[in-house]
Design goal:
Strand order of the largest sheet: 2-1-5-4-3
Order of helices and strands: HHEEHEHHEEHHHHHH
Number of helices: 11
Helix content: 40-55%
Radius of gyration: 22 Å
Number of strands: 5
Oligomer: single chain
Structural class: alpha+beta
Length: 268
């Protein structure tokens, strides 16, 4: 079954938002953004941090060669002259060709330092987080054909939940920092049952032994009935264990949970 681009975009948005809320790296999910946007010269998640010595730049990329520290420093030197930077907001996507004559832009040092290394002649971007010291935005590039209005809508569908998730994570981290300074450690065990879903975002969730057994068999393609017979439990109990995993891991559905558990096993 081939998913529509709208459904694929919503799926990517959900996965990115869950990872952001958990404080997990977003880099492993960027290839899916490349695919949804058909960004043939890649996407990049850029973080600009103002320090006493200037601006530090870090970029996670997918679909193109990695950004070296030297390339990041060169980009930082011209970032404040990029036509998109002043107008980026969490309210929508920005297409550079809407701001300046795009063919003229290709002959600027801003283009060469920020897009030229990947041949990204048609850049778009969305703001994800902005504060007095930090800016985080997601950029995408194409080399031959500009992004369409439909493409921008797909990008904005990714932007909305991701902005909210990053804001949630930042606020939660601030609260945890206050509690830590006061000597109060935040853990799943110290929270009430009603706050268990929030606790799952704060700490690394690990299935119980029985949940792990069910997950391992599900990941191997076993049906609920076969799992139940193997473990000596009822099908209802199997479904209960899987539902618990879905809720606490943030995964939705058997295939997603099985893939997540397989990845957890790979990482030890």
């Amino acid at each position: 079954m081939v998913l529509s681009r709208q459904v694929a975009s919503a799926s990517v948005a959900r996965d990115l938002a869950v990872a952001a809320a958990r404080g997990e790296p977003l880099l492993p999910l960027l290839p899916a953004v490349v695919e949804v946007l058909r960004a043939d010269t890649g996407v990049g998640l850029t973080r600009l941090r103002r320090t006493g010595q200037g601006i530090d730049v870090s970029v996670d990329v997918a679909g193109s060669a990695p950004i070296t520290p030297a390339m990041g420093r060169l980009a930082a030197e011209v970032a404040d002259r990029h036509p998109a930077i002043p107008v980026l907001s969490t309210a929508g996507a920005v297409r550079v060709s809407d701001l300046v004559p795009i063919r003229d832009f290709w002959h600027t040092d801003v283009y060469e330092r920020m897009h030229g290394h990947v041949g990204g002649r048609y850049p778009v971007a969305i703001m994800l987080h902005s504060s007095a010291t930090d800016v985080v935005f997601l950029g995408a590039h194409r080399g031959t054909v500009d992004f369409s209005t439909e493409d921008l809508l797909l990008l904005e569908a990714i932007q909305r939940p991701l902005v909210a998730a990053l804001a949630f994570r930042a606020a939660l981290d601030e609260a945890i920092a206050v509690l830590s300074d006061d000597g109060m450690a935040l853990s799943c065990g110290s929270l009430s049952e009603d706050l268990a879903p929030i606790a799952a975002l704060c700490t690394a969730y690990r299935p119980t032994q029985r949940e792990a057994e069910v997950l391992s068999l599900a990941a191997a393609g076993w049906t609920n009935l076969r799992i139940a017979r193997r473990l000596g439990i009822t099908e209802r109990t199997v479904r209960k264990h899987l539902s618990s995993v879905y809720e606490q891991s943030g995964r939705r559905g058997r295939a997603s949970a099985a893939a997540w558990w397989a990845a957890q096993q790979d990482h030890g």
